[in-house]
Amino acid sequence: MAKRDGLITHDGITRCWWCGELEDYQRYHDEEWGFPVDDDHRLFEKLCLEGFQSGLSWLTILRKREGFRRAFANFDFEAIARWRPASRTEKLLANADIVRHRGKIEATLSNARQACALAEEYGSLAAYFWRWEPDPSERPRKYDKASLAALGQTPSAKAMAKDLEARGFRFFGPTTAYAFMQAMGMVNDHLEGCATRPEVEAARAAFKRPS
User: Where are the alpha helices (DSSP H) in the chain?
Assistant: First the structure.
């Protein structure tokens, strides 16, 4: 594996450094991360899983993602909102397929109810979240590892996190909000030289923003 400027080349493919040589991480990097998403259940899933990641690595969450999907009804927030929080929390705390953290589980159940309100107000979660897509003026001129390291809390991410907090969402601060933007394709943070960067750029160009 060759390394240079935040990039790695493995099996002839150049990628961002963070996925290393792990097949599941490489697949996530190549097929998901940064591609624009307008599916409400996937957006809610990412919002919740970013909260569960707090204090952990994304790889830990990624490897439990199917377990999370089974436990949380494929992140159908309307279905989750109908659950009885107290009894469901205890059941989920006994589920070894997910991260068993009471506060994060309770936040997910609460966030489902807030997501229903958002979808009703804006027509969809996608319409809400994509209104926070950063202005080009926020974006770095060069996409290298050093530039991205300075983007932990951007104005758009701070504003989105503040708005969600005011609406009652939990476990979703500015850093989490920016990671959400990266993963859901609201920005393209694949490094220059990464083989996936032009694919994501093309997908974003063709993407019809929800309204």
Answer: 23-31, 40-53, 58-63, 65-71, 77-80, 85-93, 102-122, 125-129, 145-149, 155-166, 174-183, 197-206
**Domains, the chain:** 2-206 (1.10.340.30)
* 28 counts as catalytic: yes
- Report the alpha-carbon distance of residue 164 to residue 26 in Å, rounded: 31
Residues with Cβ < 8 Å from 43, sequence gap 6 or more?
A: 37, 125, 126, 129, 184
Read off the tokens for 68: 């999370």
pTM of the model: 0.95
The closest alpha carbon to 105, from 117, 120, 118, 87, belongs to: 87
State the Cα–Cα distance between residues 79 and 136, nearest whole angstrom. 37
* CA nearest neighbour of 172 among 44, 67, 57: 44
Q: What does the pLDDT look like over 119-128, one tens digit per residue? A: 999 999 999 9
Give the lowest-confidence range in 3-17, 27-41, 62-76, 186-200. Answer: 3-17
Please identify which of the residues 17, 18, 28, 122 carries the catalytic annotation. 28
58 catalytic per annotation: yes
| Residue pointed to by tokens 């940064």 | 34
**8 Å CB contact between 84 and 106:** no
Catalytic position from the list 17, 18, 32, 58: 58
Q: Which of 25, 33, 45, 50 is catalytic?
A: 50
